[in-house]
Amino acid sequence: MRVPAATRVTAGVSVAAVTLLLGGCSQTPAERLEEWYGSGGEAQIRKLNEDAGRVNEVSMRTIDVQGPACQDLLAQTAKAEKLDPIPDEAAQRYWKEALGGFRRGAGECADGAAKKDGSQVSRGIAAVQTEGLPKLVSTVSMIKAALAHK
Predict the structure, then answer these.
(1) Whole-number Å distance between alpha carbons of 113 and 29
(2) How many CB atoms lie within 10 A of CB 122?
(3) Which residues contact 30 (CB under 8 A, 6 or more apart)?
(4) Which partner from 23, 37, 88, 138 sits 20 to 30 angstroms from 45, CA to CA?
């Protein structure tokens, strides 16, 4: 008897889903971390680093350049906050602190730029530099260390 193609695909997907679900339960912490990193975590970290680096680079420029950089970082932070938590407790703690620093700093900077308030913009940029970036570096260091011991 010949099985219709649609039935074969559905059965294949069901077997794959069951295998994935069962396999997910037995993953080691390093495997879960590697999965998080490979399924969007690395890309989000890279983009946050780029956007925060841009805020840092424009810190001595004019508000009309600083404001858009801060708005971009704020938007990227919102995307990163939607990711699943990092499956490493220490890295997740630093990640959450980094995102909080970026959200506060970029938000204050963008708000200050909208009001043409240079001191508020400067405070926001300083928060990105002192609260967000160092915690992002710590997050990456912890992830790399955990993946190296896999």
Answers:
(1) 43
(2) 17
(3) 146, 147, 149, 150
(4) 23
User: Is 51:69 a contact under the CB 8 Å cutoff?
Assistant: yes
Query: Cα-flanking dihedrals φ and ψ of residue 116, to 5°?
Result: 60, 35
Helices in 82-132 by DSSP H: which ranges?
89-115, 118-127
Tens digit of each residue's pLDDT (9 = 90 or more) over 102-141: 999 999 999 999 999 999 999 999 999 999 999 999 999 9
Other CB atoms within a 10 A radius of the CB of residue 72 amount to 18
Q: Which amino acid is at 82?
A: K
- Give how far Cα 87 sits from Cα of 41, 65, 118, 128, 133, Å: 11, 37, 39, 25, 21
Find the angle CA(136)-CA(140)-CA(146) to the nearest 5 degrees.
145
Buried b / exposed e along 82-96 (16+ C-beta atoms within 10 A): ebeebbbeebbebbe
Q: What is the pLDDT of residues 27-40, one digit of tens each?
A: 888 899 999 999 99
Tokens of 91: 């890295």
Q: Buried (b) or exposed (e) across 55-70, using 16+ Cβ within 10 A?
A: bbebbeeebeebbebb
Question: What is the token pair recorded at 99?
Answer: 């995102």
Token reading at 109:
């900077």
CA gap 83, 68 in Å, rounded? 24
